[in-house]
Amino acid sequence: MLKVGLLGAGRIAGVHATAISGNPGSALVAVSDINAEAAAALAAQCGAEARSTDAILNDAAIDAVLIATSTDTHSDLIERATAAGKAVLCEKPVDLSLARALACQTAATGKPVMIGFNRRFDPNFAALKAAADRGEIGKAELLSITSFDPAPPPVAYIKVSGGLFRDMMIHDFDMANFIMGAAPVTVSAVGTSIVDPAIGAAGDVDTAVVTLTYADGRIAVIKNSRRAVYGYDQRVELLGSEGLLQAQNMLENTVVKSTTSGVTGAKPTYFFLERYMPAYAAEWAAFVAAVNGGSALPVTLADGVAALAMAEAATRSAQTGAPVALADILGG
Amino acid sequence: MLKVGLLGAGRIAGVHATAISGNPGSALVAVSDINAEAAAALAAQCGAEARSTDAILNDAAIDAVLIATSTDTHSDLIERATAAGKAVLCEKPVDLSLARALACQTAATGKPVMIGFNRRFDPNFAALKAAADRGEIGKAELLSITSFDPAPPPVAYIKVSGGLFRDMMIHDFDMANFIMGAAPVTVSAVGTSIVDPAIGAAGDVDTAVVTLTYADGRIAVIKNSRRAVYGYDQRVELLGSEGLLQAQNMLENTVVKSTTSGVTGAKPTYFFLERYMPAYAAEWAAFVAAVNGGSALPVTLADGVAALAMAEAATRSAQTGAPVALADILGG
Amino acid sequence: MLKVGLLGAGRIAGVHATAISGNPGSALVAVSDINAEAAAALAAQCGAEARSTDAILNDAAIDAVLIATSTDTHSDLIERATAAGKAVLCEKPVDLSLARALACQTAATGKPVMIGFNRRFDPNFAALKAAADRGEIGKAELLSITSFDPAPPPVAYIKVSGGLFRDMMIHDFDMANFIMGAAPVTVSAVGTSIVDPAIGAAGDVDTAVVTLTYADGRIAVIKNSRRAVYGYDQRVELLGSEGLLQAQNMLENTVVKSTTSGVTGAKPTYFFLERYMPAYAAEWAAFVAAVNGGSALPVTLADGVAALAMAEAATRSAQTGAPVALADILGG
Amino acid sequence: MLKVGLLGAGRIAGVHATAISGNPGSALVAVSDINAEAAAALAAQCGAEARSTDAILNDAAIDAVLIATSTDTHSDLIERATAAGKAVLCEKPVDLSLARALACQTAATGKPVMIGFNRRFDPNFAALKAAADRGEIGKAELLSITSFDPAPPPVAYIKVSGGLFRDMMIHDFDMANFIMGAAPVTVSAVGTSIVDPAIGAAGDVDTAVVTLTYADGRIAVIKNSRRAVYGYDQRVELLGSEGLLQAQNMLENTVVKSTTSGVTGAKPTYFFLERYMPAYAAEWAAFVAAVNGGSALPVTLADGVAALAMAEAATRSAQTGAPVALADILGG
Q1: Which of B60, B318, B325, C292 has the least CB density, counted as fewest CB within 10 Å?
Q2: Distance from C22 to chain A by nearest Cα, in Å?
Q3: What is the CA radius of gyration of chain C?
Q4: Nearest CA-CA distance, residue C228 and chain D, Å
């Protein structure tokens, strides 16, 4: 039984608490948060204790911590937790600063660190990846990722988010790395603030297209929008030498209505909690299995750094209008 | 080059005229109709002559006739045309009277007669049949036919139509015979006039379900409605020991719109002319190929009589509430 | 907090135990089973006690019981539990004998009894029903239910099951009652043992079609097969004066593969546990809400009796080949 | 009745001959080709005369010419035909040289010239455009075009084609202009020869992604591959402020098969002749209607030049790796 401390008690921490409690191989022992009331409430709800982060890290009986605090604390907590001998699952991104993330990668040794790219565990994307790995469409050539949020976050959030590429598209960068099994060579980005001019005024974009090229000639393209009023639009499509694989949206239900107005089905599930709840549970199960089994984690700190480097490259490309070599980002 | 006379110049005759003219192996020579103006107009449109029916039947240069006149003339014209040495393609049904149709079957000899069950030539139903015949779903067990018109015909038409089972479901009876490759043993029907009470007042039904049983244990069920406001709903579904085959509707186009109201696609094509035009062309091509090639026609006068007998049985079953053995219908 | 005793510790009891434990408004207190080991194992797994059925029924602290024992015990346990002042949720069917079920309905008074027709709580069927009730397709006219199991049960099970109509189609009879909001007037059934002759040898059918007529002219048709090798095929389709509603199958995932062999998507979820687990949880939540809120139960003992009467009528119709009036069944 | 001369007698000329002959408002009078036998054969097949190009252009009785010759003759023939007073429908592209096309645009005056971007007349893309123009998804923000050929052409063809961007993606550039109703500001391209290294050795790419930015902040992305083994993959997707429009593929038929291997439907229609035949007929009908009605042509020579300029920009961008401003291409 893996004894777990949860750092953070916000919305996503609640999601993880459910996954931890629902897994027969793990037990949620303690919760911390800078908001003591939030920690107490979540702890009470899960039959755990509210403690300080220090208390959790210093408790030798705790085997692992899940870091679901604000992004600016991730690197520090990863380093402190691994130093304290805890296995770590940390929410994405590792950090908004690539330099800091690289330093964390160097510093965090001794214990395994997994980054929370939950979409790898979505049953649809996982099935697509498995089919591709079995060679069902031959050799991969062209990857397309469509990833639209239902509605933009508040501008106040945008301002501290690190920008669309680090905050939102980072999931898709990791998805590209997951599907392609390699990092790209170049990153070309265009972005616009056509959904909400206030997002542009805050220095960010809300709609973007990024093209990735790979050393072996493959290409990937990622499309992001902060607004798809019909729901959470999450699709992946991979063209190969022998066919095409598509992971389509999950729908709210299977009812279809035919009238004089057309044939209407349900919308995609509206938000990430509805779409990805099974993915969060599967992510945690994979973490528990790897830690308990002594096997390698399915997503590593290096994966977190790689996605962040791509976000850095895309941010720079969108600003300059020129493609950016990933090596220049990592080298410099 | 097959030289063809067209008997009838109404709507369905126009459909056939297009198919005859569009086929490189046939030429439309003459058109007749009791309405001389209609015959002249259609003939002019197709580069053919308007003539009397007698003149067409007596013209030794004409190889084949297509009978698209009113139902009550079909049997007589089949007999006269075959006696005159013409190959015949006659619109369904052979007759409203099973006795008359049986007599026609006996009398019409010497030349091949094909009945216009155009749906057998629909690319979707033909593909389903071919897949079933290749054994792709193993042994057939349960057939379902859904066949809804977009809107009921005028009650005046209903009154002379012979009733839903002879006028509308006869297509589905032939489809069942086509797919199952055998006639049923029993026919059980229920019908209701829920779409329009005036149809009920005219002694007919507008919504019906018929269940067929087969000697080898298979079952088929046919659903008809005179009204599906969203378009022409024409589906076939066959369950077998190793799978399911479904022929779904043709849609007006492939555009799908996702909004806050749902995900909406196009309706089924609205009427039989839109849905089945390719089937009429394929039907005619099959007729020409068989007549020119000296091979057997793909749909025979016996097929027309078989479907009519099932319509007769269904009409009786809907009236009595009891299943009817097809042998009792044909036997007497 | 509703305190619950679970009678039965088999497969379906385990499903219910999960639902009871997962509901924040209920607590599983005790489990009984004629197999003491099974009861102990399930109780341990859920943090409950294993007790005798008597001990559960006599414990005044227990508010409700869920009956998931073998069918032949249902009526007795419903009567004893209601007499003991417990609210009851009992698995379907009430009994294999309609007479016994009717007696139970008379005897079980004082406390509410809900019958476990879980499919009413399936999100897809519930959405279809809600859309129909909102009048989105006008007035209902023709209902079609397709309900195929992935594989037939062992013949040993068939022999004690009461037959396909009481064991399997009873769910669909209740679905018809749920969607149509009324009982039918006549029931016409045909059945065959085409999937497995051993099922026929055991006196049962494995494939069946039942047609229902209603006092207001509506029609319903139900298709059952014990074998659909591609998975659990559960569809409902309702034609109305202004459109069509269809609840389609749930699929294992959303991945679609296009190759030279065609465009292939995932199969339907394979078995009822995968398809209907959310329905079991929603069913239990509805029970808890009604019992706690003092409101009427969404499915009643009368609903259980009604479906059983239709199964009785269908069984008789399949044997005689003639339609059966439901009034004749209930009348005597 | 529009009297038409057809310049060219190759495959695509045959397609147009069918459209011309099938249109009740036009008559095919004469056909020319450098291959006299081909011209004679096509003319015979259509009831037209084989003539020289000069004879066609000099015949005052001919109202319009359709140019379906090799690309290097398009500009000359457009200039000669308009000078001879003929309305012109010319196959795409105007020329492989942008400078030559611009000169042609200047020189060809007096008579209307339409460029054969047939896809605008595809019923699916036309319906998407109409829905967007009606504001059904609000304000357009992000356009995606997927356009994959089933199989690459011979390398010999590639060598004289002008390259993927001028030969294949030019259709998609025009589609972007059609949907967006404006030319882009910048064009960014990446290309690779991953399908066939021989295509790379010939100096071309076989897989490419192009991103377009617009003055008002909109973005478009086009994906091309020379090989999609499952058929002709032609999709358009437009995200707007109030929804998403998608034009999906046409399928060979509507049959779906469910087995233990999954749920398999038909492939997309395999080649452009199958997919776009209705579009060619509609294109010609639009040309006839505009010429006869004296109204503006729906696609102009300027549209042909605009798409060619985008192809030029994309070719340059793919070579340099940097975005290209369309103004720089057109300016010099």
Answers
A1: B60
A2: 10
A3: 20
A4: 8
Q: Which residues pair with A228 in a beta bridge?
A: none
Chains A & B: contacts with CB separation below 8 Å: 54
Nearest-by-Cβ selection for C262 from D233, D258, D267: D267
Residue pair C160/C70 in contact (Cβ under 8 Å)? The answer is no
User: Which burial class, exposed, middle or buried, applies to C76 when counting CB atoms under 10 A from its CB (0-12, 13-18, 19+)?
Assistant: middle
List the structure tokens of A44.
């009470």
- Do C250 and A254 count as a contact with CB atoms less than 8 A apart? yes
- Whether pTM > 0.90 for this model: the answer is yes
Cα–Cα distance for residue pair D206/A106, rounded to 1 Å: 41
ipTM: 0.95
- Shortest distance between the Cα of C146 and any Cα of chain B, in A, equals 10
Helix (H, G, I), strand (E, B) or coil at C270: coil
- C150 interfacial to chain D (CB closer than 8 Å): no
Question: Tens place of pLDDT for every residue, chain B, 332 residues?
Answer: 899 999 999 999 999 999 998 898 999 999 999 999 999 999 999 889 999 999 999 999 999 999 999 999 999 999 999 999 999 999 999 999 999 999 999 999 889 999 999 999 999 999 999 999 999 999 999 999 999 999 999 999 999 999 999 999 999 999 999 999 999 999 999 999 999 999 999 999 999 999 999 999 999 999 999 999 999 999 999 999 999 999 999 999 999 999 999 999 999 987 777 788 889 999 999 999 999 988 899 999 999 999 999 999 999 999 999 999 999 998 75
Element (H, E) at C274: helix C272-293
Instruction: Kindly state the helix (H) or strand (E) to which residue C222 belongs, with its residue range.
Output: strand C219-225
Among candidate residues B174, B152, B150, the one with its CA nearest the CA of residue B161:
B152
Chains that touch D (3 or more CB pairs under 8 A): A, B, C
For testing the chain C interface, which of A253, A274, A277 should be mutated: the one with the most C CBs within 10 Å? Answer: A253
Q: Are B267 and A258 in contact (CB under 8 A)?
A: yes
**Domains of chain B by range and CATH?**
2-111 (3.40.50.720), 121-277+307-331 (3.30.360.10)
How many other CB atoms are found less than 10 A from the CB of residue A303? 22
